[in-house]
């Protein structure tokens, strides 16, 4: 059974057909609708898509997938570096806070620790 054009790009539910991306500008939305209409007319008139165009689309899709993967990995790595930086700052502040106690002998106990 042949699917309708909008069903191939959505979940098949009717309300999906009218959903727009809210973060898109008007120009991007218009370009997207233009290409959708152009593809619909191309299929209705029975014209085949150029095989070189399909190959370039596949190449572009693979490059975009790789780019998104590298971007996500980089963001995760940056978050880890920021966490490590925060850890080092806290560790440095703690050692600075207790550095005035370095003159105490190792077996020294504070008076309030003895009372407990």
UniProtKB/TrEMBL annotation:
- Outline the extent of the AH domain: 29-90
Annotated membrane-spanning segments are none
The GO molecular function terms of this record are: protein domain specific binding
Highest taxon above the source species? Eukaryota
One GO cellular component term of this record is: Golgi apparatus
Query: Which InterPro entries does the entry link to?
Result: AH_dom, Islet_autoAg_Ica1/Ica1-like
BP-aspect Gene Ontology terms = regulation of transport
The record's listing under Pfam families reads: Arfaptin (PF06456)
PANTHER family, A to Z: GH23156P, ISLET CELL AUTOANTIGEN 1
| Name recorded for this polypeptide | AH domain-containing protein
Organism source for this protein?
A: Trichostrongylus colubriformis
